[in-house]
Amino acid sequence: MSTLIDGKAAAARVLAEVQAEVGQLQAQGVEPALAVVLVGDDPASHVYVRNKVLRAGEVGIRSLEYRLPAEASAEAVLEVVAGLNADAAVHGILVQLPLPGHIDEVRVLQAIDPAKDVDGFHSENVGGLSQGRPVLTPCTPAGCMRLLRDTLGDLSGKHAVVVGRSNIVGKPMAALLLAANCSVTVLHSRSIKPEKLCGQADIVIAAVGRPRMIGADWIKPGAVVIDVGINRIDENGRSRLVGDVDFDAVLPVASAITPVPGGVGPMTIALLMRNTVLAARQQTGQALQETR
Q1: Exposed e or buried b for every residue in 73-99, given b needs 16+ CB within 10 A?
Q2: Where would a tag sit more exposed on the chain, N or C end, judged by fewer CB atoms within 10 A?
Q3: Which residues form the Tetrahydrofolate dehydrogenase/cyclohydrolase NAD(P)-binding domain (predicted)?
Q4: How many CB atoms lie within 10 A of CB 228?
Q5: 96 an active-site residue?
């Protein structure tokens, strides 16, 4: 039977560490601050922003919210970003995605000062990650790495398979695993016999966005499975969240597995808080430290 990897408990540990670091910075006269820009009325985005603001308050990070209507122009959003870039009292900037369809997301993300890019999406941070430099890293992959290290310790020599090649999760996840000295395989829609390749892995990261795609026949006995997927399905007349992994089928096979919900999700916000502290350190002349 698998060990359940408790993302809520792990996130609480990260947040406790962040809170202690915020206290140290405040004692030195630095008040870490996170600005969140929300455009439009997407209900899920409003929930995400509310949760981020709540976590920030809990750890002592000052939060600022900038809400623009759905019809706001790209220039209006860029003006807000430019003002936040210029404000030395703001250390982290997050533009909540998705943006309305008439706004070019890449243009907006590229406008954020890379030193304040706490989502880790700016091309300068993406490039630095691929080169192994200590940069602000996308929060979900960084959270997955923390869960893996808490579960396995040293990852050197492990064969890791990442299912999915998105810019937000799959690609940065592969880069972080390589930096941890894993042998890495990335599977995607054109991969041939993906279940066979996945079945060779010591570590499986599922981030493909297809409910329960990965069954027991994809998993080597004893592998550690991190399920990034969050898919809402209707089952037996009820709406529920499931991952990209068939949890019930894989549970007896894997040595450890994250549940959905309660696995990777809480870690994403915790690592956002961690990135805000790292950004504050960098901007106040302190060394940017590697996230565990």
Answers
A1: ebeebbebbeebbeeeebbbbbbbeeb
A2: N
A3: 138-283
A4: 31
A5: yes
Tokens matching residue 124: 């300068």
d(CA 149, CA 271): 14
Q: Which residues are annotated as a binding site for NADP(+)?
A: 164-166, 230
**Structural domains of the chain sorted by starting position, each given as residue range(s) with its CATH number in brackets:** 28-114 (3.40.50.10860), 139-266 (3.40.50.720)
Question: pLDDT tens across 108-152, in order?
Answer: 999 999 999 999 999 999 999 999 999 999 999 999 999 999 999
Within 10 angstroms of residue 152's Cβ, the number of other Cβ atoms is 15
Q: Classify residue 259 by burial, with Cβ atoms within 10 Å: 0-12, 13-18, 19+.
A: buried
Tens digits of residue pLDDT in 93-103: 999 999 999 99
Q: Which of 63, 51, 36 is nearest to 119 (CA)?
A: 36
